[in-house]
Each structure stands twice: as structure tokens, then as C-alpha cells.
């Protein structure tokens, strides 16, 4: 962290941000703390904190960022797929309790077992849905 924090044109201490542009990935800069906040008009103060990256470092960092974004996208798609599967199975079990018989043939109380399984699936579904937004 810098020893002295610059003051922007508004008279406020500037905020340390990180650029993720293709030209300066990971490079930190000071800017007006109002920028992007929606509270008041920013004064457009800007000064680099880090020196420019070496070309090789920039290429490596951009490649790593691309891999991270690809993995994040794949994880999001996988989570959505499992949620759809859970929704489908839960709806099927609520609509047709006899489907529980396929899961456990020798259960005496198939309806009760089906409701327990459907409840567990519903809890899992809610947990995963919260995980997407949380």
C-alpha cells in the first residue's frame, strides 16, 4: 500500500483500483472514489500506481485470465444443469409418488419415502440456487 494516498480533484482521498483491460491487466491505479458508485459525478482523477507490465507478463496474465473466465463459465453452466435436473426430479416425485418405487423397491411406505426424497431434493435445489447468487 502506498505511504501517501493522492487527493483527487474533488478533494477526497483517491481510491486504489485495479485495471483488467487488455492493455493493462492487473495494473493498479488511483481514481476518484465516486467513479462507478452512482453517488455524485466523478472528477475523472486518474494516476497509475504500478509501472507498466513487461510484454511477456502481459501475455501470460491475459492467458491466465482467459482460463479463469472459461472455468467460471463452465462451472456456472454445470451448476445450472444440476439445478434443472433437481427441479425435474423433484417435480416428477411430487407429481407421481409411485416413481419412488423405482428407487427403492422393498419400501413399505413408498409415499412417505417419496416425500422425504422430494424434500431432500428441494432443500438441495434451494441450497444450490442460493449458491449461484450468494
TrEMBL record:
GO terms for molecular function: zinc ion binding. The chain crosses the membrane at residues 82-104, 110-130. InterPro entries: Znf_GRF (IPR010666). Keywords: Membrane, Metal-binding, Transmembrane, Transmembrane helix, Zinc, Zinc-finger. Residues 8-52 form the GRF-type domain. This is GRF-type domain-containing protein. It comes from Gossypium anomalum.
Amino acid at each position: 500500500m502506498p505511504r501517501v494516498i493522492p487527493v483527487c480533484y474533488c478533494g477526497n482521498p483517491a481510491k486504489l483500483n485495479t485495471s483488467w483491460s487488455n492493455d493493462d491487466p492487473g495494473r493498479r491505479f488511483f481514481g476518484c472514489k465516486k467513479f462507478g458508485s452512482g453517488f455524485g459525478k466523478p472528477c475523472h482523477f486518474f494516476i497509475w500506481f504500478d509501472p507498466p507490465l513487461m510484454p511477456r507478463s502481459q501475455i501470460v496474465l491475459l492467458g491466465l485470465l482467459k482460463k479463469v473466465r472459461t472455468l467460471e463459465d463452465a462451472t456456472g453452466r454445470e451448476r445450472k444443469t444440476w439445478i434443472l435436473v433437481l427441479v425435474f426430479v423433484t417435480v416428477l416425485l411430487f407429481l407421481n409418488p409411485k416413481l419412488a418405487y423405482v428407487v427403492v423397491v422393498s419400501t413399505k411406505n413408498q409415499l412417505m419415502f417419496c416425500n422425504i426424497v422430494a424434500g431432500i431434493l428441494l432443500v438441495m435445489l434451494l441450497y444450490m440456487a442460493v449458491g449461484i447468487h450468494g
